[in-house]
Each structure stands twice: as structure tokens, then as C-alpha cells.
Design a protein that fits this description.
Elements (H helix, E strand, L loop, with lengths): L1 H13 L3 E2 L8 H12 L4 H21 L5 E6 L7 H11 L3 E7 L2 H14 L4 E2 L2 E2 L2 H8 L5 E6 L11 H11 L6 E7 L4 H7 L6 H17 L8 E8 L4 E8 L3 E5 L2 E5 L4 E8 L3 H10 L2 E8 L5 E8 L1
Parallel strand pairs: 1-12, 2-3, 2-6, 3-4, 3-5, 6-7
Antiparallel strand pairs: 7-14, 8-9, 9-12, 10-11, 13-14
This protein binds S-adenosylmethionine.
S-adenosylmethionine (SAM) binds next to strand 3.
């Protein structure tokens, strides 16, 4: 991990504009901070998806309509607190399935496994500590029906429409009739969206700065954390919420043998969280080889879990 961590951090800081890969947010502290973010009053995403899965998991089970044995594979499962609702409902109907949560964060995966073993003793669980892209490859040879889950708006974190390539690759590794359940954050009042990434208590700021701390502690860098400020934005036309860290002074940072110059006010692109309309979701499904079975919404229509079938 340290090797690819180092390589990708250096690669990102060499780009113009500078960028850092958001998948590295989730060390132990990062995963803890994300759990706190999920509970913030401004972070409506978790509450909305919780409501959907709490009320509609039975309907999702019926619409997925698996007849025999099947596999549930979840990409970027995190702490699984919402998925637990769906699995509980599925287990009322059958335990003829294996649940494989995939996550790059060892600590998140360990926490999820512990909770699920305690709270869902009937569940067959097979945790996989891996990156999305290598995990996609290992799905290919299984011959059981699959339900792939990609929840919590993880789909919105791909840059430059890479979600299209990711979903096409996923389709290639699935068989006709397999299903995917994807959580989409919907376009809405821009102020509600911006507040979700700009919480009053400053946890999202700390979450972003934690990646700089991680670079310091794991790569022996000398970044002055206090010289960077969190700057979240939202563009209601493109639906892109983007978080930056801004250097508050001219400075140089050192990571092992590499040095990087920052000008005062220079941004680092940290994370994109894209928002979708229902038309965007339809277009994405069609262009990647899927058909929509159903969209499940929360009562405010802030969020949609969309169930697709591979064509
Ligand atoms: C925003 S959290 C959402 C977690 C969960 N899906 C939810 O809805 O609560 C994203 C999760 O995806 C994981 N993740 C991010 N990028 C990843 C990647 N490239 N490969 C595997 N896991 C990744 C992170 O470690 C984190 O646990």
C-alpha cells in the first residue's frame, strides 16, 4: 500500500492543477471522521439513503427477484450501517447468498465484519480488502447471479466521467440478468448541497486535512497542516460539488526526496461528489449496458437508490 500511496500522491501533486486521490482519505482516522460526517445534521445523504433502505428493502428484494443462490458484492462498503438494513430484510427471505464487502480501508472493513458477525449471525460474509478496479476482475468467474451494490453516492466520486468507464467494465464482468443497486445523490437546492460539505462543526475540513496528516505520518513529509484551508464548491449546472484545500501562503513541501512549490491561494483538488438528475441516471444506465428496474426515493426526493439489470 505504501508504494502505491507514495506513487499516486507524487503523481497527483505533479499535475496542474495539483490533486490528491480521495480514495486515500480512509485511513483509520479518516474512516472514523467519515462516520462522524454521516451523523452531521447537514449531511442529508446518509439520512436519505437510510430512509430508503429502512422502508423499501423488501421491495428491492422482490424486484431483484433472485430465485436460487446469489452473491451480493458491495464496492466501497464503509461501515455498512445502511447496508445492514437491506441485508436484514433479505435474510428474512433467504440466507442462500454470500455477501462480499469490498473496501480499500482495512479499518472500515474490520469494523463492518465485526458488527455484521454480531448482529447478523445468519449472514455468510466474505470481506475483501482491495481497490474497486482489481476487485472488478475477481468477479468475472463466478457463475451465480449477482447483485452489485455501490451505495452512499460513491459513484459521484469519479472524476472526468470515469464512472462511465467503471460501469462499462463492471457490465463486462457481469452476466445478462445480474443486477446493480447504485446510490445517487440528486440535484437539489444548491445551498442544501453546499452545506453538506461545509458543516459548521468543521468535521469535513478535518476529514480533508487528515489526508495531509496521513502523508506526513506515512511518508515522512513536512506539510504545515495549518497553512491549508478547506474550500468546498458546488456548480448547479454540472452538478459537481468539489472540495479543494487552498495553500494560504507561498511555500515548499517535501515528501521523501521530492519537493513541491505552492503559491499563495493555490488549490489542491481533493474530491468531487457529483449530483444527478433522474434523466442523468437513465442516460448513464443506457450508455453502460443496463436497464433501470426501479428508482427508490426518500420522501424529500434528495436521494435515489437505482436498481439496474444487465442487458
Ligand atoms: C463515502 S464512503 C461511503 C461508504 C458506504 N458506501 C456508505 O454509503 O456509507 C466511501 C467508502 O469507499 C471506500 N473506497 C473509496 N475509494 C475506493 C476504491 N478505489 N476502492 C475500494 N474502496 C474505496 C472508502 O474506503 C470508504 O469506506
Amino acid at each position: 500500500m505504501t508504494d502505491s500511496f507514495y506513487t499516486e500522491i507524487i503523481e497527483g501533486l505533479t499535475k496542474s492543477p495539483k490533486t490528491l486521490p480521495s480514495k486515500y482519505f480512509y485511513d483509520k482516522r479518516g474512516s472514523e471522521l467519515f462516520q462522524t460526517i454521516m451523523k452531521l445534521p447537514e449531511y442529508y445523504l446518509t439520512k436519505s439513503e437510510y430512509e430508503i433502505l429502512n422502508n423499501q428493502s423488501g421491495e428491492i428484494f422482490n424486484d431483484f427477484s433472485a430465485k436460487q443462490k446469489f452473491d451480493i458484492i458491495e464496492f466501497g462498503a464503509g461501515d455498512g450501517s445502511k447496508t445492514k438494513l437491506l441485508l436484514k430484510e433479505f435474510l428474512k427471505q433467504t440466507n442462500n447468498f454470500v455477501y462480499s464487502p469490498i473496501d480499500i480501508s482495512k479499518s472500515a472493513l474490520k469494523g463492518l465484519e465485526q458488527t455484521f458477525r454480531e448482529e447478523l449471525p445468519l449472514l455468510k460474509i466474505n470481506p475483501i480488502n482491495d481497490d474497486y478496479f482489481s476487485a472488478l476482475e475477481s468477479m468475472k468467474n463466478k457463475d451465480t447471479t449477482k447483485l452489485v451494490m455501490f451505495m452512499g453516492s460513491n459513484i459521484g466520486n469519479f472524476k472526468y466521467n470515469e464512472e462511465v468507464d467503471f460501469l462499462k467494465l463492471m457490465r463486462k464482468n457481469l452476466s445478462q440478468g445480474d443486477c446493480v443497486l447504485i446510490g445517487f445523490d440528486l440535484k437539489k437546492d444548491p445551498r442544501i448541497i453546499l452545506d453538506a460539505y461545509n458543516d459548521k462543526s468543521g468535521v469535513t475540513k478535518e476529514f480533508n486535512l487528515n489526508l495531509l496528516k496521513r502523508i506526513n505520518s506515512e511518508l515522512g513529509a513536512d506539510i504545515d497542516i495549518s497553512s491549508f484551508e478547506h474550500y468546498p464548491t458546488y456548480n448547479p449546472i454540472t452538478g459537481e460539488a468539489i472540495s479543494y484545500l487552498i495553500s494560504m501562503k507561498n511555500q515548499q513541501i517535501r515528501i521523501k526526496d521530492k519537493r513541491f512549490e505552492f503559491k499563495q491561494s493555490e488549490p489542491i483538488f481533493m474530491e468531487i461528489s457529483k449530483k444527478y438528475s433522474t434523466e442523468d441516471i437513465e442516460e448513464l444506465a443506457l450508455s453502460t449496458g443496463f436497464e433501470i428496474i426501479k428508482n427508490y426515493y426518500d420522501c424529500k426526493h434528495y436521494f435515489a437508490d437505482s436498481l439496474w439489470r444487465a442487458k
